[in-house]
From TrEMBL:
Gene3D superfamilies: Winged helix-like DNA-binding domain superfamily/Winged helix DNA-binding domain. It comes from Pedobacter kyungheensis. Residues 13-117 form the HTH hxlR-type domain. This is HxlR family transcriptional regulator. GO terms for molecular function: DNA binding. Pfam families: HxlR. InterPro entries: HTH_HxlR, WH-like_DNA-bd_sf, WH_DNA-bd_sf. PROSITE patterns: HTH_HXLR. Keywords: DNA-binding, Transcription, Transcription regulation.
Amino acid sequence: MTKISELKDFSECSTTYILAVNDTINVINGKWKAAIISSLFFGKKRYGEIEKDIPKINSRMLSKELRDLEANGIVVRKVYDTIPVGVEYELTESGHAFRKVLDVMLEWGLEHRKNVIGKTI
């Protein structure tokens, strides 16, 4: 994983900077992706377990978002030859590395809520 200190100086807006930010946004684009990734930080889970972790997500949307995350290399889907067929989802190395991004987002969100709304969760 590239460290910010290893990158060239971004004192000016560069194409590399814009592309990297857009790549990040494309991976988490949507209401549910960050929640799904967060659920999987705690280990492999079956579809129903993820669904229980995320209130208000419908089955169709969870399926779509899991496929998108799999296509983006964040989640891996493992199918087991059992009856009924067993399916588990887990984070890839890239998915686990995304925790740093979510931790910063959490920190910023809590501070922003406190400053703008005037209360904490």
